[in-house]
């Protein structure tokens, strides 16, 4: 058989056969005087097996290992590993669909996909027109993107519906055009710091370039008086962390 004939018989392309030759998966057959390859029935059997194994999802290196074991013992081992890989993929797909369902049913738009933990947190928070609440949400999404937010979101859950917390947001909104010397700043900063649970502090990495960068960028994201409040809150929280570490 010529290459086109064996390709049609087995149901693969001539290009695929040439690739199998190139990577050493299918031995080169003999050639006629005119240079054309001549394939035997045995070549067709091997090629058919390669096709079946690749259709099962095996990589070419795995196919080569299976073909090298004439007894077929390694075939079962490789297929068992493939089955485990497919099971993991199924679990990942189910988790992605679960996250998608939360996005479709919850308050987060498709343009802002988040983790299930954050989607649940945002779903419990009432609608609000507070610019600072909206900014806080943006920061939570940013933190969620870094992959370190799941425990933080769980710790923040009790605060999501707390009217006192929303009142603090409104007071922070009122400082949008204030000076850094505004007398309302110290008291508001103290109350905001006190509202942060210890569980949140425990879940935030205390070092590393990601957290350092976020802390520095946060201050630039606020108006001057609001930034001063956030600066004081960050200092108060850092002091609490230090006190806990000294105990």
UniProtKB/TrEMBL annotation:
Transmembrane segments: none
UniProt xrefs under Gene3D superfamilies: 1.10.1660.10
Coiled-coil blocks: 79-106
Domain HTH merR-type: 1-69
SMART domains hit by this protein: HTH_MERR (SM00422)
Keywords attached to this entry: Coiled coil, DNA-binding
Record InterPro entries: DNA-bd_dom_put_sf, MerR-type_HTH_dom, MerR_fam
Pfam families to which the protein is assigned, alphabetical: MerR_1 (PF13411)
Record PROSITE patterns: HTH_MERR_2
Entry annotated with the keyword Chaperone: no
Protein name listed in UniProt: MerR family transcriptional regulator
Organism for this UniProt entry: Streptomyces gelaticus
């Amino acid at each position: 058989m010529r290459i086109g004939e064996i390709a049609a018989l087995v149901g693969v392309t001539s290009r695929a056969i040439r690739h199998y030759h190139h990577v050493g998966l299918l031995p080169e057959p003999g050639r006629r005087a005119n240079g054309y390859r001549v394939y035997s029935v045995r070549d067709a059997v091997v090629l058919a097996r390669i096709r079946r194994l690749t259709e099962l999802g095996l990589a070419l290196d795995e196919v080569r290992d299976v073909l090298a074991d004439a007894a077929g013992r390694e075939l079962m081992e490789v297929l068992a590993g493939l089955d485990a890989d497919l099971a993991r993929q199924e679990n990942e797909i189910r988790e992605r669909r679960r996250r998608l369902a939360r996005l479709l049913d919850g308050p987060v738009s498709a343009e802002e996909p988040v983790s299930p933990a954050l989607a649940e947190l945002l779903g419990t928070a009432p609608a609000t027109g507070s610019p600072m609440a909206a900014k806080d949400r943006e920061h939570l999404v940013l933190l969620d993107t870094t992959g370190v937010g799941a425990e933080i979101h769980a710790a923040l859950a009790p605060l999501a519906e707390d009217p006192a917390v929303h009142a603090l947001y409104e007071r922070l909104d009122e400082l949008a055009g204030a000076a850094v010397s505004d007398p309302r700043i110290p008291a508001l900063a103290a109350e905001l710091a006190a509202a942060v649970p210890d569980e949140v502090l425990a879940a935030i990495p205390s070092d590393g370039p990601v957290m350092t960068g976020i802390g520095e960028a946060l201050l630039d994201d606020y108006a001057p008086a609001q930034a001063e409040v956030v600066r004081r809150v960050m200092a108060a929280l850092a002091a609490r962390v230090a006190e806990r570490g000294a105990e």
